[in-house]
Design goal:
Number of helices: 17
Number of domains: 4
Distance between the termini: 75 Å
CATH class of the largest domain: Alpha Beta
CATH architecture of the largest domain: 2-Layer Sandwich
Structural class: alpha/beta
CATH superfamily of the largest domain: Reverse transcriptase/Diguanylate cyclase domain
């Protein structure tokens, strides 16, 4: 080995033996060239030009057999090969070149056949995913796993629409791609270490919709990687024809970003530029207001891309509504949590007004686009001054929304306030809470079982009206004496006085907990 030791990772596409001076013009790149040196030239200038032409056409390596034309490799050849990074090997004894080429070609053909077979397997897997209701995110995730490297889906003129990682985290993947793209724009090329595989994604009318890119961040890229990308691209092009697929991908990508912030997987100095790349450009001095939307959980808890796309018009309508009010909004879905995270740029003083507008827009869009018997749950976090405080605020909103799923419906829940229902929901699994409800209400529950005239609604009405009997009678459409009779019966069954504030407070808590426990038991 005389030169190019740092470039031995080059892929050999084919092996070729030749003895002509202009051989570079006949090669396509990626060849291992074997020669006795007849066409290299006798002068140093000719030798340097020969090596330069081989490098320019992309030859993988040069092997020169000594003895017939050279007793040793000329210094001009060695120096030029080293300068250009072209691997140069000298053979000190004669070997049949045909045996070398046959062996290499057999290996290459075998590898290509194996890659094609694996390509067919991964194509079948992609097809199965689509038939199971998966979409582009699931295909890209399976592709990244198969080639052991991250993949990115880039739309022409719009940048990265979605990405899937393998081992490297999302920040490194996106930063690497931005760096490579900038360097290629500046220099017109990339070094061997920066090579990636890019396959065009066809669009309507024969134009290119964009391209799919694999980055060699976690392992080297081989022939199988290109075959796998080509197999995936065909299905992705078809999937993009489905309604709302591009919007769903954008929402998923924003969801990944917000999830990374909430989980503190993202260095906060990287958050503003990534948010800007996703279209979120808050004005200076704006506060960051997080919302979390817990979606109704279907009987089949597996969320498919088809189910996700049903919600896409709701989130797009929310973005349009916020934009019409000059409010910057970032809306992202987290399929793993079955929720949606929203980031709004607002004035701190406008927090409640903006939340009410957003909640109204979400509920109205849901009524228009979604046929569901359950109402989604919206929780609003605290408005924070900068990105450093955002992870905690996002988690508080998401936790509040997840907890409030089991509570009574409201237009929206405020994660910044102490909420009795959320407290009781968190205690739902505690046996002490169920015991408390039974001790307080069991006599009434036993009485009402099987009876038409039930006492529990009377007690609930009394508590709802803070113990005021006249208002309670009006609410129940009862004569006052009838109400007194019912209240007397309740006191007898409970062996307690309803005009005692502590008693009413305890019964109030027991009734709230009873409703939540019943809802959870259904």
């Amino acid at each position: 080995m005389l030169a190019g030791r740092g470039h031995l990772d080059r892929v050999i596409r084919w092996a070729h033996a030749a003895e002509v001076t202009n051989i570079a013009a006949l090669l396509k790149g990626g060849e291992l060239l074997l020669t006795t040196g007849m066409g290299i030239g006798r002068t140093a200038a000719q030798q340097r030009l020969f090596i330069t032409r081989l490098h320019d056409c992309g030859v993988a390596a040069l092997v020169i057999e000594l003895g017939q034309h050279f007793d040793q490799i000329p210094a001009a050849v060695t120096d030029q090969a080293e300068a250009l990074g072209l691997p140069l090997i000298a053979l000190h004894r004669e070997i049949p070149f045909v045996e070398v080429t046959e062996s290499i070609h057999a290996t290459i053909v075998s590898q290509q056949f194996a890659a094609l077979s694996r390509g067919e397997q991964i194509h079948r897997r992609f097809t199965e995913l689509l038939l199971e209701g998966a979409g582009i995110p699931e295909i890209l995730a399976a592709l990244a796993q198969a080639i052991a490297n991250p993949v990115l889906l880039e739309k022409s003129g719009h940048g990265i629409l979605f990405h899937a990682i393998h081992r490297s985290d999302a920040t490194d993947v996106l930063a690497t791609w931005e760096s490579l793209r900038d360097r290629r724009d500046d220099s017109g090329g990339a070094s061997a270490e920066e090579r990636f595989v890019a396959v065009p994604v066809p669009g309507a009318g024969g134009s290119a919709w964009g391209r799919m890119i694999a980055l060699p961040l976690d392992s080297p890229l081989d022939e199988f990687a290109r075959i796998a990308l080509e197999r995936a691209v065909a299905l992705i092009a078809l999937t993009l024809l489905r309604s709302h697929q591009e919007e769903m991908l954008s929402i998923r990508e924003r969801g990944n970003f917000l999830a990374d912030i909430a989980a503190e997987r993202l260095h906060l100095s990287d958050a503003p530029p990534r948010a800007e790349a996703l279209g979120f450009r808050p004005r200076a001095g704006s506060s960051l207001l997080p919302l979390a939307i817990a979606l109704p959980i279907p009987v089949n808890t597996q969320v498919s891309s088809a189910a996700e796309s049903v919600w896409t018009p709701v989130w797009e309508e929310l973005r349009r509504e916020m934009r019409s009010r000059a409010i910057h909004a970032l809306v992202g879905a987290r399929s793993s949590h079955k929720d949606v995270l929203v980031l709004l740029a607002v004035s701190a003083a406008d927090r409640r007004r903006v939340i009410e507008h957003a909640a109204a827009a979400i509920h109205a869009a849901t009524d228009r686009h979604i046929q569901t018997g359950e109402q989604l749950v919206i929780a609003a976090g605290r408005a924070v001054a900068d990105w450093r405080e955002l992870p905690g605020a996002l988690r508080e909103a998401a936790d509040a929304a997840a907890t409030a799923r089991a509570g009574p419906p409201r237009p929206w829940h405020d994660a910044t306030t102490a909420d009795l229902d959320r407290l009781l929901i968190r205690l739902q699994g505690n046996p002490a809470l169920r015991s408390f409800v039974q001790q307080r209400l069991q006599p009434l529950l036993d009485h009402d079982r099987g009876r038409t005239a039930k006492l529990l609604p009377t007690l609930q009405a009394l508590i709802d009206h803070q113990g005021h009997k006249a208002e309670t009678a009006r609410a129940l459409h009862l004569e006052r004496q009838s109400l007194y009779s019912r209240l007397k019966r309740i006191e007898t069954l409970l062996d307690d006085k309803l005009d005692d504030p502590d008693t009413l407070l305890g019964l109030h808590l027991a009734l709230r907990a009873h409703c939540l426990l019943e809802r959870g038991d259904q």
